[in-house]
Amino acid sequence: MNQQSPNEHDRIRAIEEEIGLTELRTGQLDEMVRELSGQVFDLAKRLESLERRFVEMTMPVEDTPDTPPPHSHRPL
Hints:
mainly alpha, 70% helix
């Protein structure tokens, strides 16, 4: 059987603990990335909607004729 010295045992335990913490941090980062990706998607949709509204607002208004259409009633 392979005997480990106390220093080796402590070193192995520290490495195992660091691996566990790294896995925990990786899981937390994955969750944060998922949340931020969702927020970016929502913001992109909102920006697209605002761009459409902006384009609609900046389109030139068609000139309206000074005379009313023939079917409208004019005062006598």
